Amino acid sequence: MDKNKNTVYFIHPDLKHMKQYIQFFLIAILLCPVMVFSQTAEVKLPVKSDVSIPLRDMKPQKKPFWKKWFHEVETEVPNQFRPVPPGFNVDNVIQTVYNHADRSMESTLLMNFDGTSNGSNITMSTPPDPVGDVGPNHYVQIVNSMFHVWNKAGVSQFGPVNTSTIWSGFNGPWNGHNNGDAIVVYDDFSDRWLVSQFAINCGTYPTYTEFEMIAISTSPDPTGSYYRYAFQFDYMPDYPKIGVWNDGYYMAVNRFDFNQPNPQPYVGAAGCVMERSKMLVGDPSARMIYFKTENLGGSGSGSGSLCWAMLPSDCDGTPPAVGTPDYFTYIDGSSELRIWALHADWTTPLNSTFTYVTALPVAAYTMMGSGSIAEQGTLALDALGDRLMFRNQYRNFGSYETFVTCHSVNTGSNIAGIRWYEYRKTGSTFSLYQQSTYAPGDGKSRWLGSIAMNSIGDIGLAYSVSSSTMHPSIYYTGRRASDPLNQMTIPEGLIQSGTVSMTSYSRWGDYSSMSIDPSDDITFWTTQEYVGTYGGWCPWSTKISSFKFANTPIVITQAATAIAATSGTLNGTVNPNGLATTYHFEWGTTVTYGNSTSSQSAGSGSSNVAESANLTGLTTGTTYHYRIVATNSDGTGNGDDITFIPGAAIITTTAVSAITTTTATSGGTITADGGSAVTARGICWSMAINPTIANSHTSDGTGTGTFTSSISGLLIGNGYYVRAYATNANGTYYGDNAFFSTSCGTISMLPVTQDFEGYAITPGCWNEENSNPAWQYLLGCGNGIPASAHSGIRNACLKDYTTADNTDKLISPVFDLSLYNNVVVTFWHTQAVWSGDQDQLKIYYRTSSGGTWNQLASYTSSITSWKQDSVNLPVPGPYFQIAFEGNAKYGYGVCLDDIKVKAPGNWIGGTSGSLSDWNTGTNWGDGFVPTASSDVYIPARNYLPVVNNPAACHNLIIESGAGLSVSALKTITVNGKMTLK
What we know:
Helices cover 2% and strands 43% of the residues. The protein contains 2 helices and 69 strands.
């Protein structure tokens, strides 16, 4: 839907009622109140279980011979989507280094054969949702809605058949249902296969019953017999995803009430775990422990009602320690990776817990919407950017546990990239280890990714690729464990080049699959989709492929040392990867190098070996490029390019410490003077990256060694970059950037301004009441009214796509205003009406943490261009907060900019300049010297005003313990009344 601003896409055919659908859907998903309930697990037994005959002996259902003469039966596997939040967040972690052509021999495509296509479907379905897993001898693939088994040479062993074939003879309300959204996973710990598929809307409306069907192979042979189970759910279990854990099979679903008329409301997510030990032996008493997340309470990131499309952890390799919960993860839509823990207590199941663990801040991103991926032709494809892509893979490396997952993001102009994460758990602490967006900047969208890590830490990523001049295709990339963080370094490999585009339907897959071969725990296997050429309604096809990375040397270029005026030592490491290897350094004044050191042996081991080479006769002050290069029988590995400057001082920046609201401590260490004495050193800082001595800086002596620097004059709650510097006869040189943010505390000095510049998320020291919907920090409102910020390049904006009360308070830091007698807040705002829909703004204050919000002002009319308003605050006290509550009711958005809290005529003194000078503007609470019409208030402060030049005011109030000095022969004129308290 497009109202000449942002586009929101839903899978709903009735465009006439789209706006109503959006309203109902968002009310259900985004506006349900956060209610606190006691956490109670439900324990469910299967409604039915049995053991099947061997799958290979079952009689599969076949496509009727007459089907070729009749119109195809067409079905869409149901799924529901979250709306794409309006606005655009700049992605600051898009990978920038892609020039890895020199590593093109490092990956090998081993197997690449055709998977199942829609042409084999008895009932044509879309999208395919290809998923598969690999075992010691087989690859099993499931698409909507078929099941197929191959051996690892790509020879079909069974199928394709309807996935429901697995439940043939397993009679119940699910008879005749082959609804899709199936998952297959290989259980490494037991050498068994798990297959799941939902059976939804069984029976008749409005008394549907909903089921998840689970089958566990009785042997390592996926064509053999299965233990079969049916678990009933309270609502449609949409988007079911399963992870293997050592104590259970864990599953997450999104629940929708299909016993309600369109649009079927979203009820909430659910997390559950099935009793693996019993299911592996076909025990009919196998239990399922079930949690409804909307009943888990909490607020903010921990609110159960906010959970959506969670992925349970799926373990490969070494299992977690006994008793470790399975971790469920999902994205919030803009800047968080949220983690919950489900702990199963099979002794006393009601003691099981499903609890919020943490939210890892990630770089801001913008979700891709439905119908947003361009392809050659006119139809645009779905991106499914509202959720993490299957799987959330887990590995246990002993000293730490690691997880990898990914999702699609908008890198600009609806060009999709793949945001991927590796996050780690060390002890009980989670942290984001690396993150990046893979988007090479060639105008092609990359989406529907699936990612996995092998046992040596290499990562593989496969995905779809498309553009307005390209048919949908399949590619892969990856990285070695020793590669620089945040980069996919393996050049893109082609799996399938598209020759046609989808012309009948925009739905693309909801997920794909990447798994690791358990035979070596190194080789990657993937299944992905593309458009086939056999014709038909939705002619999708699939590929099944495997690849691994070659044993080329792993090389890392390291910083040069012993740098003097005309010489330096090049450094690097080489891992021969088990093959006889030689190395050398390439160097020169450009990236084409032109010079090389002599070739040396690095041995044939499997660990990093430190190597170096000395250069002499260099030109002082000239930048030199270099890299280490190593070769063995599998290929050549090239290190990254690094530069150094003969004659440059070598300096590192000390981590920032002792951070307060306005001060901090850093420093540096100079390890080499570059051949000439260091005449100046210190640190420099700025809100922008790469500060120089042209910015704020210290002077901390001369010479080499370690020094400490004090930083002052900072702004409260702001982020700063700092780096050390050293100056010698050849120039000024800098260490690496260090970043820190000043603390918030309580603000007692006015004026304070918030202009939202430099903030892609909520500004430091400010917070939001519920972030649902959330304020965005962008240029204008993203829809043209307003088209720009009042000043700079960012302002705050709250908007939503329903006419309900969609409110969120933007809350200021805490102020101590006890030494002020009048305080004013000024702000610029817009709230343009859109087709009768009017957004609103209210201003509140409170005088204690958690206290009652009191309304100060309300703005309910249309304001189409920036307008400044001001509000006088009540009698100030030691605790004071201000809140700007936007109510986004489908208008162009409530926009705020340049908020200023000030105290006109209030003496603050001692902030800068002349500490007690009446005529210094920064000594006053609004930044301006009073005039003859100003009321002046002087409280008892450390620095009291001195009139060194003629001054004037209207009324003058001097508090007890305060005072005013007038220099000899100077005057102050009080035009009104003077009061001494």
